[in-house]
Each structure stands twice: as structure tokens, then as C-alpha cells.
UniProtKB/TrEMBL annotation:
Recorded family membership: Belongs to the AAA ATPase family. BCS1 subfamily.
Protein name: AAA+ ATPase domain-containing protein
Protein species of origin: Penicillium cosmopolitanum
Membrane topology: Single-pass membrane protein
Catalyzed reactions per annotation: ATP + H2O = ADP + phosphate + H(+)
């Protein structure tokens, strides 16, 4: 009977104006209230005023002092903000995409892996692709999920590659919004947001927010350090290349555009003494003692190099090889980039890491020559592979390039009072005579290296470096890389014999090849171009070289 009374009372309460209002606001409230009353003997209507009061209080605080809520949450939550333009964003995205709990998230962004996603900038996958491409082409076992196949002809190989390319790998990352996961026993919230109303051709602009409970953000720091370690370890000793990218607010920042296997210094044909001097000078400059020496004497700690010579003689190649050798990041800047002015260039230089190489290519064509103010159309350099066009958005601007760098602007940036210290600046030009002496004075250019047409020795060296790899698979500068054949001495001896005979064969051919080419007339790029037509056939290269030289001469005359 008592329960009936209670039930009767609860039903009566449920039909009160308050309850009716709540039912309208929270559908199902009447049933919930009924449930509490019947089974738990709790009349939640009694707490109603407290609940409504609390909700109103929170609403008022939010409305009147939007920052107050932030302050309150700051007391109990630690948050790290990560911006897309910062490399930490790449660390996090790379780390996230490798976490099994993130793979299980029910809301995710599925996108094809593009090279312009720096966290998936394909270095790794490209490299794997290259390896497996080689493998299948050699006719040896090639990986396939379930089967093992052998391909020997180009058609087989190509069909397989094209089929594989159709199925580009899909990248899964947590979608916009909040995601929760546990890291080292702590609950972490990851929020991903994207800036809306952004012009399409400027790409995305995202932010990540990492939060944990408590005022101590230590666990977030640990997570970010772990992400950084994972990202950097992935690069190994590869040469990282950055380019300046213009954002839609017209500011510029460096964006990582690719990483490449380091180019061996031995593959750059240049007078040995000059090459050694260049590398030794860089090494000495980077030594901590040198740094102290500069600081003690109040001399700005900077070093500049000018590499000059005709196109295709190895200027960029040397710079790229030096970056690989010294494991420095390479920052490429084209002074003809639309919208690049002195201010943006200063901010780019200010954001350089302490130790790096900045490469300013073709400075003579950038409006900073003795005849100032001219602009020229940009050109690419084959020594460093062109980045994915989607990264380099400089071309997306159709405004004419009004903002050019003036000579005084450039001088200010490279060694003005506010100029950055610690970096190595390498400038290249085909016309050193066109440059203003102010740019060339010591302190701005500390060493000049002249590149020229190929000498007799250079030609032999280039020929040998091109055919060092034929027949026996990859060979190092000092000899072939021998396959590891355990307990098979005969096979090793055979291999050595083959190497010796290849070396002798190439040495003889080098001489004949160099004899047919006039010294000081052709560039390394031209000779390399010819040899590329005879990749595995050094004899054929030698046989056809005289005729090729004839044709080159005729072409030059016309
Ligand atoms: N000295 C060299 N040793 C080895 N390879 C060279 C050399 N010079 C040029 N090459 C080859 O020629 C191509 C172009 O070289 P690179 O871009 O370094 O020349 P560059 O002097 O910088 O040309 P540009 O003045 O047009 O920028 C590259 O593929 C490179 O491998």
C-alpha cells in the first residue's frame, strides 16, 4: 500500500508544471524520475533546484566570462597546443598513425598517403618501394601477401608495379573532434581541429590539442618526446630538405618537403683538393671551439660560400653531398619566390635551426645583381629532386612578383645586426661577375669554389663512378659490396675475381672514353646525360662517344 502511495505521489509530482517543463527539455525525464522513485526511492525532483541552479551558474559564467571557464579548467587540466606549421605536428601525426589504440578509434579520417603530408612524407614507403622494385626486377623472390612470385621481364615487372600503384596505401588518422586514449596509465584527450574558411589552394591548417588530468603536464611532455624520437629515428641518416612556403596570411615558414639518401661526396667530381678544403672548412666552422672563438672576439658566427660556374657543373650536387656528409638539414630558398620580401626573408632566417645549410640558388637571377630590381622566371635544379608541387604553393599565386629582394635587403638578412647565427650559407651562381662586390666581401662569402668544364681526369672519374655498379650489384666507392655468402669461400673468391676483372675493364675503358672527349669543353651534366643512354654498356658508350662529341659541337655552333 505504501508503495502505491509513493507511486501515486510520484505520478502526481511527475505531472507538476516543473516536471512537464523538464520533460519538454529532457525527453524521457518523466520515465527517469519514475524509475528513481520506484526502484531507488529517490525523488530527483527534490534535487531539481540544485541542478538547475548549478546549470544556470555555469551558463552565466560561460556567458559573462568566457575565459573564466578556461581558468577553471586550467586548474584541473593540462593542455598542449600543437600547430600545423610546427614540426611537432608532424611528430604527433606520425606517432598517432602508429598507435594501435588510434587504429581502433571509431571516428577517423581516411585519406590517401600524399607526399605533402609530412608525417607520411613517403620517405619510408618510397624507400621500401624502391627496394621491392629492385627485388622483383632482379627476378628474385618478391613479397606478396600470400604468394611468392618471380618476375623476369619488364612487362611482368611493370604490370605488377602498376597494379600495386593502383592500390595506394590509405592513411588513417583520428578525425576532427575529441579522442581519448591511455598513455603510460594516464587518460589523454586528443582534440583535432581544422581552420575553416581557408582558401583551398593553401591546404589545411590544423591544430592538435593534447590534454591530461592534473596541473602537471609531465606526461604530455613525455608523450611528445616519444613522438619526436620515433619521427627522427625514422629518418636515420637521410638528408632532410626544407623549402620556404607561403601561407595565406602572406607569412612564410619552412616546410619539410622531402628526405633523400645522402649523396656520397665521392660521386661529385671536383678537384680533390678543393673538395677537401670545402669539407674541412665546414667541419672547422662547426667545431665548438670555433664557435667559442667567434663569440670571444665578438665576431658574428656565420659562414658563407659561393659556388660558381656554368650550369650543370656540380654546384648544387656538392652542397647536397656536404649536407649528407655532415648530417645537416638543407634549407632551399629561391629568391624569386612570389611575395618574398625582406621582412619575410628575415623571419625565415630567424627561424632556422642553429646548425643547417641554407642554399640560395642562382642569386644572379634574383634581382640583386649590379642591375637591381629585375625578376626572372624560376627554374628547377636537377641535382635536388623537385618537391611535390602540392607542397610548394609558391606557384599558386597568380599575382605578379612585385616583391623582389633587393641587394641591401639580402645583405641585411645574411649579416645585418639581427641576422641569424650558426647557419652555413651557400650561394650558387652561373655569373659571379654580375654580383655586386658588397655581396662577395669576407664575412658574407668566406670561400669561393669555381666549377668548370670537365678535365681529362674528371671525365675518367665520372665514367668510373657511373659503371662502378654494373654486373655485380651495388659497389661502394672503394670496391664492390660483396654478398654475404656464409661458409662458401669458393663463391666469395669467384666474386672477388669478377670485381677485379670489372675494375680492370672499367679502367681501360675510362682511358679510351676520356681520350675521345676534348678537355674543358663539356660539363659533367652533359657527359652524365650521354652515359645515361648506355647505362649498363660501357663499351657501347666508348664506341659512340666520338660521334656524340661531334654532334655536341655542331649543336653549339648552330
Ligand atoms: N661535378 C659533378 N660531379 C658529379 N655529377 C655532376 C657534377 N656536375 C653535375 N653533375 C650532375 O649533373 C646534374 C646537375 O648537377 P648540378 O645541379 O649539381 O649542377 P649545377 O652546377 O648546380 O647546375 P645549375 O647551375 O644549373 O644549378 C646532376 O644530376 C649531377 O649529378
Amino acid at each position: 500500500m505504501a508503495s502505491n502511495e509513493t507511486l501515486g505521489g510520484s505520478i502526481a509530482d511527475a505531472s507538476s508544471p516543473d516536471t512537464a517543463l523538464l520533460e519538454a527539455l529532457v525527453p524521457g525525464y518523466r520515465i527517469i524520475s519514475h524509475f528513481f522513485m520506484s526502484y531507488l526511492k529517490i525523488d530527483i525532483n527534490g534535487y531539481l533546484q540544485i541542478l538547475i541552479g548549478f546549470a544556470l551558474l555555469v551558463g552565466c559564467i560561460k556567458y559573462l566570462h568566457p575565459t573564466a571557464m578556461e581558468n577553471i579548467s586550467d586548474l584541473i587540466i593540462s593542455t598542449a597546443e600543437i600547430r600545423m606549421e610546427d614540426e611537432v605536428f608532424n611528430y604527433m601525426m606520425y606517432w598517432i598513425s602508429r598507435q594501435s589504440h588510434m587504429k581502433r578509434t571509431s571516428r577517423f579520417l581516411a585519406s590517401l598517403k600524399f607526399k605533402h603530408d609530412p608525417w607520411a612524407d613517403s620517405d619510408e614507403s618510397d624507400f621500401e618501394d624502391e627496394d621491392s622494385d629492385d627485388e622483383s626486377w632482379d627476378g628474385s623472390k618478391s613479397r606478396n601477401n600470400t604468394t611468392t612470385t618471380t618476375t623476369t621481364t619488364f612487362d611482368d615487372y611493370w604490370a605488377k608495379m602498376m597494379n600495386r600503384d593502383k592500390y595506394k596505401s590509405i592513411n588513417f588518422t583520428p578525425s576532427e573532434g575529441s579522442h581519448y586514449f591511455r598513455y603510460r596509465g594516464h587518460l589523454i584527450k586528443l582534440r583535432r581541429t581544422e581552420e575553416q574558411n581557408r582558401p583551398r589552394n593553401f591546404g589545411r591548417n590544423e591544430r592538435l590539442w593534447l590534454s591530461c588530468l592534473g596541473k602537471n603536464p609531465e606526461i604530455l611532455r613525455q608523450l611528445l618526446l616519444e613522438a619526436q624520437k620515433a619521427y627522427i629515428e625514422r629518418d636515420g641518416n637521410r638528408t632532410l630538405i626544407y623549402r620556404a612556403k607561403r601561407d595565406y596570411d602572406r607569412s612564410f615558414s619552412w616546410i619539410r618537403c622531402m628526405s633523400r639518401s645522402p649523396r656520397p661526396m665521392s660521386s661529385v667530381i671536383l678537384n680533390q683538393a678543393q673538395k677537401q678544403e670545402f669539407v674541412d672548412d665546414m667541419r672547422e666552422y662547426l667545431h665548438p671551439k670555433t664557435r667559442r672563438w667567434y663569440f670571444d672576439r665578438g665576431i658574428p658566427y656565420r659562414r658563407g660560400y659561393l659556388l660558381h660556374g656554368p650550369p650543370g657543373t656540380g654546384k648544387t650536387s656538392l652542397c647536397f653531398a656536404a649536407a649528407g656528409l655532415l648530417r645537416l638539414k638543407l634549407y632551399l630558398l629561391n629568391l624569386k619566390t612570389n611575395g618574398l620580401d625582406e621582412e619575410s626573408m628575415s623571419s625565415l632566417f630567424a627561424s632556422l635551426p642553429r646548425r643547417c645549410i641554407v642554399l640560395l640558388e642562382d642569386i644572379d637571377t634574383a634581382g640583386i645583381t649590379k642591375t637591381r630590381g629585375k625578376t626572372v622566371t624560376p627554374g628547377d635544379n636537377p641535382a635536388i629532386p623537385a618537391p611535390n608541387t602540392e607542397i610548394s604553393t609558391e606557384g599558386d599565386f597568380d599575382e605578379s612578383s612585385k616583391d623582389t629582394i633587393t641587394l641591401s635587403g639580402l645583405l641585411n638578412v645574411i649579416d645585418g645586426v639581427a641576422a641569424s647565427e650558426g647557419r652555413i650559407l651557400v650561394m650558387t651562381t652561373n655569373h659571379p661577375d654580375k654580383l655586386d662586390p658588397a655581396l662577395l666581401r669576407p664575412g658574407r662569402v668566406d670561400m669561393s669554389i669555381s666549377f668548370g668544364y670537365m678535365s681529362d681526369n674528371d671525365i675518367k672519374e665520372l665514367f668510373a663512378s657511373m659503371y662502378r655498379f654494373i654486373g655485380n650489384g651495388p659497389r661502394q666507392a672503394n670496391g664492390p659490396v660483396k654478398e654475404k655468402v656464409e661458409n662458401d669461400e669458393d663463391s666469395t673468391r669467384e666474386q672477388e675475381k669478377r670485381d677485379v676483372s670489372l675494375d680492370a675493364r672499367i679502367s681501360n675503358l675510362c682511358v679510351s672514353f676520356a681520350q675521345a672527349i676534348p678537355t674543358g669543353e663539356l660539363t659533367a651534366a652533359e657527359i652524365q646525360g650521354y652515359l645515361l643512354n648506355h647505362k649498363d654498356k660501357p663499351e657501347a658508350a666508348v664506341a659512340g662517344v666520338a660521334q656524340w662529341v661531334e654532334e655536341m659541337r655542331k649543336n653549339r655552333e648552330t
